[in-house]
Amino acid sequence: MAATTLVFLILPILVVVILSFDPRRYLAYFPPAGFTFKWYQFLITSPTMMGGLVLSVIIATITVVNCLVVGLPCAYCIARRQFRGKELLLNFLSLPMLIPEVVIGISLLMFFTRALLYDSLTKILLAHFLFTFPYMLRALTATLVGYDKSAEEAALVLGANQIQAFASVVFPLIRAGVIGGSIFAFFISFDNTAVTLFLADPFTRTLPVALFVRLKSYSDPVIAAASTLLIALSYLIIILLEKTVGLDKFTGIAPLPGR
Amino acid sequence: MKRSSWQLLLIPGAALVGALLVVPLVMLADMSLHRYVPFAPSIVVGGYTLDSYLIFFNPVEAYLRVLYDTLAISLYSVVLTILLGFSIAHFLARTKHVRMRKLVMSITIASFFTGTLVRVYSWVIMLGQGGVVNTVLYALGFERLRLIGTDTAIILGLIHSSLSLAILVLVGSIRNVDPSVEQAAWTLGADPITTFIRITLPLSMPGILAAFVILYAWDATAFLVPMILGAGTHLFIANLIYDKFMSTTNFPMGSAISVVFILISLLFFSLSSALAKKLGRTTHD
Fold first, then answer.
1. Is the ipTM of this complex over 0.90?
2. What angle do CA A175, A177, A181 make, to 5 degrees?
């Protein structure tokens, strides 16, 4: 059964890859009629697509940094300290996970308009922070709860202050979790379509939005080519992850509610 | 060292989320209580009214139907996703072949990272009139099926998009089931199926419950999958809200639907939190 499920998982993606080489202009007819690179050529030379890609990467990176900067202290408090209303706080901070992206997009649009914030990039960055933060927070909390505290205690006993202990003992231990959470957050931000759709303007198009717009107008293999490139990119990152952090550490980092 | 200064660390997070989330939602709730006046010069007209909510809950209108569709179709998807995901997660948690495990893990994670748009698109290719399934059917002599626009298509799309997440969540909790307990069952004479039903399954229940909650939230708030694979036949709540805001510009109605859905989600979330606590174990600590 596991094998069938795996096939189920891979098959549609494989089909997309195969069809990205199809020379016909209209997509969705299965056996491909030939082989060509022209869609990839179009992609690389298209300013909308390439611009979208660059923008998405920039936004995702900034979002991850924002989430880390705000999230690490929060996660530390939640994981290591007891205080009243901790459960409530964690659930409150995870709220964006529960709300449909459409609702987030629309309500933020209303809010930003009334707040007279018109700059698309700022709006997108704020929005991406909002819905990425819960995932980052939960990943970091899970990591900070799970590491072996006795090493840190040993350092403190031997005379290090809190900051020294953190830098030389705690940080290397949680590094894997932080990297895992960051990559997770990066893709949440990178892949986001619905919220960004509401907050973008014609000059600030991220890649998913550009692809979505194209999907609505044409149905050509350019999208298949873009998809294949993104899939290749994610495989590259997987390989990178495996070499640096080790894939096994990735499990248990996914966010869990009800804690 | 000051004793209470660490609480300051929480302030940026809470403040930002508070500002970005609470304020817009309050505005949304406010909007939902106004009257809908088509073509009015300004969006907010007139006094406060519960009209939108009354219309929503009126059985004659189609809104409750959409709510039902969303919750029912998501339920089917989540159950199937957990079943399928469990098979791979169990393999990943228990297998001794390191290379196979790494391979399957990379496929899972890579699948997780392929974007929603790509995924939905790939299912259009799989299920479309000229797509994979229909080409095979036609070649074998059968009639082509209309698959896009059915709830089956939506379910397939939802399963495919949440499967990797399910696997990642479940692996952690299956790993936490001590293999020696399973081995004890074997030495006492239980066959694999009995062991699974009476030992492994109950012990991984917290993880399964956690997976259920997060997958259900993920599926019920889906937007692209029901929109493209459902082709308008089975609207999900997210599509309905989008339509109200963008097509008919009925902001009060759109806001009302959003508020109702958020309240339902909160209820669901807290019920499952309570249930998880009752089950006793957490999967991390």
1. no
2. 120
Chain B residues touching A125 at Cβ < 8 A: none
**CA atoms within 13 A of residue B280's CA, in its CB half-sphere:** 4
Considering its fold, how many domains does chain B have in total? 1
Q: Compare CB distances from A238 to B106, B266, B277 and report the shortest one's residue.
A: B106
CB atoms within 10 A of CB B158: 26
Q: Is the pLDDT of residue B197 over 50?
A: yes
Q: What is the CATH number of the domain that holds B230?
A: 1.10.3720.10
Across the interface, whether the CB atoms of B9 and A74 are under 8 A apart is answered yes
- CB pairs A-B closer than 8 Å: 282
Whether residue B27 lies inside any domain: the answer is no
**Nearest residue on chain A to B239, alpha-carbon basis:** A102
Chain A residues whose CB is inside 8 A of the B266 CB are 98
Residues 81-140 of A with CB under 8 A from B: 81, 83, 87, 89, 91-93, 95-104, 106-108, 110-111, 114, 126-127, 129-130, 133, 137
Q: Does residue A2 lie within any of the structural domains?
A: no
CATH number (domain holding residue A219):
1.10.3720.10
Of B106, B132, B276, the CB nearest to A258: B276
8 A C-beta contact, residue B260 and residue A93? no
The answer to which of B25-34, B120-129, B216-225, B272-281 has the lowest mean pLDDT is B272-281
Q: What is the pLDDT of residues B2-13, one digit of tens each?
A: 456 777 777 888
CB contact under 8 A, A194 and B90: no
pLDDT category of residue B159 using cuts at 50, 70 and 90: very high
Q: How many domains does chain A have?
A: 1
Q: How far apart are CA A79 and CA B252, in angstroms?
A: 40
Residue A32's alpha-carbon distances to A23, A28, B133, in angstroms, are: 8, 9, 14
- Which pTM was predicted? 0.82
C-beta separation of B161 from B225 below 8 A: yes
pLDDT in tens, B18-74: 888 889 999 888 888 887 777 665 666 667 888 888 888 888 888 888 999 899 999
A208 shares contact with chain B (CB less than 8 Å) = yes
